[in-house]
Specification:
The protein is an alpha/beta fold. Helix content is 36%, strand content 22%. The chain has seven helices and eight strands. An eight-stranded mixed β-sheet has the order 1-2-4-3-5-6-7-8, sandwiched between helices. Helix 1 crosses helix 7 and helix 3 packs across helix 4. The longest helix is centred in the middle third of the chain and has 16 residues.
Length: 211
């Protein structure tokens, strides 16, 4: 595994780390959930599993420290999705620019990832949402062309209902996977491992070099 590459994204100079294993199958850009950052323990665990599958990962802060102190910002999906688009632009300027790209989003970050993918169909081939809030992206879901996997905990009933509604609104390749007994943060034994396994399989199936 190569050493992480530190980058500053966009005019806000958002901190990020790009990891590029060899050989490289593609790049997964992470969008963390509310109250979190690029250092999210859960996203780091999934990122390591994706790296073991040969995927590069870009983890970055969606908000500056000052912005993160304003609670409304973590639910500002237009703002967060714009930051994901900035990350895609930054990635396009690196040595990994020609790699296929997927997005992995959690909670509100999943909504931002879905909106960004809808607006960049030529750049994003696949999306995985973990415990996502697609209800915050409903106006964009019908535009989405990237293959989309929604992963929800079986005990996270309210979010599960939101994802079931979102699944019906999607017109792309799509699937809803329910992790039995898992709650919103997937803290139960084996839950995050299941998320990582599902995400790896989805990206292996749907990220195609040269497309």
């Amino acid at each position: 595994m190569s050493e992480p590459i530190s980058m500053l994204i966009g005019p806000e100079r958002l901190e990020s780390e790009l990891c590029l294993p060899k050989p490289l199958r593609g790049i997964i850009v992470f969008a963390h959930g509310s109250g979190s950052s690029r250092l999210s323990r859960r996203n780091l665990q999934v990122a390591r599993a994706l790296q073991a599958c040969g995927f590069g990962t870009l983890l970055f802060d969606l908000l500056t420290p000052e912005e993160a102190e304003i609670r409304a910002n973590v639910f500002d999906i237009p703002l967060l999705s714009q930051r994901v688009l900035l990350a895609l632009d930054a990635l396009a300027a690196t040595a990994a620019a020609r790699q296929p790209v997927g997005l992995f989003g959690a909670s509100t970050g999943a909504a931002a990832a879905l909106v960004a993918a809808a607006h960049r169909p030529e750049a994003v081939q696949a999306v995985v949402s973990r415990g996502g809030r697609p209800d915050l992206a409903m106006d964009e879901l019908g535009m989405l062309r990237a293959a989309t996997l929604l992963i929800v905990g079986g005990a996270d009933r309210e979010v599960l209902a939101m994802n079931q509604t979102a699944l019906r609104a999607l017109n792309c390749v799509k699937r809803l996977e329910v992790v039995p007994r898992a709650t919103h943060l997937f803290e139960e034994a084996g839950a995050l491992e299941t998320v990582a396994r599902l995400a790896c399989a989805w990206f292996l199936e749907h990220l195609r070099p040269g497309e």
